[in-house]
Amino acid sequence: MEKTLGDFVSALRKADLAVSPAESLDAMAALEIVGLRNRTLLKDSLSIVLAKTPEEKALFKICFDRFFSYQDFDQLKSIAAEYQDNLESVSNGLHSESDSEDGKKSRRHRHKTPLAHHDSHLGHILLSADEAGLSLLLSKAAEEVHLEHIKSLRERSVYGRRILLHMGVSELDAEIERLKKDGGEKARFTATALTSGRAYLAERVRDYVEQQYLLLVDGSGQRFLADAVSETKLTNMQPYYFEHIRESVRKLAHHLAKKHAKRRKIVNRGQLDIRKTLRRNLAYDGNLFDIRWKQIKLERPRVFVICDVSGSVKNVSRFLLTFLYSLSEVLPKVRSFAFSNELGEVTDLFERYPLEEAIDMSLDDYGKGSTDYGQAFKDFKRLALRDLDAKSTIIILGDGRNNYFDPGIDILKEMSSRCRQIIWLNPESRDRWNVGDADMKQFLTHCDYAEVCNSLKDLERMVGRVLKSAH
């Protein structure tokens, strides 16, 4: 615990909170008195010793929550439910056609089916959805590889690989290969489940390394922090970094606005406009002194933004809205809608309040409740479907996880038929788009473009695509 407290004090110092050696000793004495059982008591006790002013206490709170955070493997249970479905089908000798009768039943209520034999300790943790065990295993592996020595985001993949090896991924890979060669259907499904779990684990280890890097890099200078906020997943970002991200968003928006803020009509030197040329040269007896070229009319796109503001998705929604409303020169017609289940238009908030305040109000008003895309699409149809035309672009930001509600595919199809294009941005990696309660497979059939969007570079690429489509 002495080392852990020392690392925590080091993190506080890197976050520009001055902690003297004497205060570090006082913190150790306080720790011996209050112990570790009560997190709130520990937090308050260390705050009294290590933070003096209200500003320092606010900074201490952020650092404490990030440093002593529990690694959440929230989607592990949905993966377990998915492969249990497959194994149940195998054990009952059912084919996909006979699944329709119980297809409406929630996967969470189906009985468990024995797995094919496997010896990998990591595999047992993944297939039993043991979040606590996996979090503990990850923390120990990070300590063994000395993750606190990371200096650059370029080392992210190196440390991620080392952590996976210490967690036992080599044994897991060998187990997967053995099951694939077994030939049995149950063994094949078990191998598929382990492969899915391994992919999910690799992604979460990457997230963990990013979070630890952000924690340890605070005091290393603004140039390192700039790299961090531009390349790190937005869903991993803590509120402490929001101001840095907003500044990066403004710079990217200014760059794109400068690039695309052209005159509404530009001359295309490659195509002669014969009719206009003859008309302009009538006064010269047909001599072509005044050459006219064909012109291209640039129409600024009408953009409708539908943002899922529930859970971790809200961070990406926050910065997408910041990005779009920072492009007022080239995107003057943006209408915004927010939802978790019920959807409402928040465009007027951006007209009446400062940008950051309007975003906070939108997230607060519509960020509660279980996500229901079907209900959101119904509300959008009522509020804005009649306003869609051939110049409209719809941007939908969400992970597609619908809590097994009706996805509202018919309404999405109607929206697609009335607008120029639908762009779907999903913060999750593609291998997660059809796991558990995700309905992305159905949504994609009516989208013109779908992409992973979970970083500032992703946002820049997507907004650039929207602006380019107006040419």
Spell out the blueprint of helices and strands.
Layout lengths: L1 H13 L6 H14 L4 H12 L3 H14 L8 H16 L29 H7 L3 H14 L11 H12 L1 H14 L2 H32 L5 H10 L10 H19 L4 E8 L1 H7 L12 E5 L4 E7 L4 H13 L8 E6 L3 E3 L1 H6 L2 H12 L6 H12 L7 E6 L11 H10 L2 E6 L13 H5 L4 E4 L3 H13 L3
Parallel strand pairs: 3-4, 3-6, 6-7, 7-8
Antiparallel strand pairs: 1-2, 4-5
Helix pairs in contact: 2-3, 3-4, 5-10, 7-8, 8-10, 9-10, 12-14, 12-20, 14-16, 14-20, 17-18
Which descriptors would you attach to this protein?
alpha/beta; six-stranded mixed sheet; two-stranded antiparallel ribbon
The succession of helices and strands, N to C, reads HHHHHHHHHHHHEHEEHEEHHHEHEHEH
**Averaged pLDDT, please?**
80
CATH topology of the largest domain: Rossmann fold
User: Looking across the biggest beta sheet, what order are the strands in?
Assistant: 5-4-3-6-7-8
Structural class: alpha/beta
CATH structural class of the largest domain: Alpha Beta
Q: Rounded to an integer, what's the Rg over CA atoms?
A: 27 Å
Distance from N terminus to C terminus (CA atoms, Å) equals 61 Å
Could you describe the 3D structure shown?
This protein is an alpha/beta fold. The longest helix has 32 residues, at 185-216. It has helices at 2-14, 21-34, 39-50, 54-67, 76-91, 121-127, 131-144, 156-167, 169-182, 185-216, 222-231, 242-260, 274-280, 313-325, 347-352, 355-366, 373-384, 409-418, 440-444, 456-468, and strands at residues 265-272, 293-297, 302-308, 334-339, 343-345, 392-397, 421-426, 449-452. α5 (76-91) packs antiparallel against α10 (185-216), α12 crosses α14 and α12 packs parallel to α20 (456-468). The chain has a 6-stranded mixed β-sheet with strand order 5-4-3-6-7-8, with helices on both faces. Mean pLDDT is 80; it is low at 94-113 and 263-268. It folds into 4 domains: 2-67; 76-98 and 108-216, no CATH class; 263-297, no CATH class; 299-468, von Willebrand factor, type A domain (Rossmann fold), CATH 3.40.50.410. It is built from 20 helices and 8 strands.
